[in-house]
């Protein structure tokens, strides 16, 4: 009986760990990478536009 109870407790602890720590951390990393990609795209766009406006080939 104790083995079943500890198994159930371990399952709940693993689920709490996954949904409490791992998934929010993954979403935070994804949001950071998305923000960095948007900034890189804006920088690329700015450099491209400045290069075209300057008129030098």
Write structural notes for this entry:
Helices cover 93% and strands 0% of the residues. By secondary structure, it is mostly helical. It is rod-shaped, with a radius of gyration of 24 Å. The mean pLDDT is 93.
Strand content: under 5%
Question: What proportion of the residues is helical, as a percent range?
Answer: over 70%
The outline comes out as rod-shaped
> What is the chain-wise order of helices and strands?
H
Taking pLDDT < 50 over at least 5 consecutive residues as the criterion, the unreliable ranges are none
Number of strands: 0
Separation of termini? Answer: 79 Å
Average pLDDT reading: 93
* Biggest beta sheet attributes: none
List the total number of helices. Answer: 1
Please tell me how large the radius of gyration is: 24 Å
Structural class comes to mainly alpha
Give a topology summary:
Layout: H1 2-54
Keywords:
57 residues; rod-shaped; 93% helix; single chain
Summarize the structure.
By secondary structure, the chain is mainly alpha-helical.
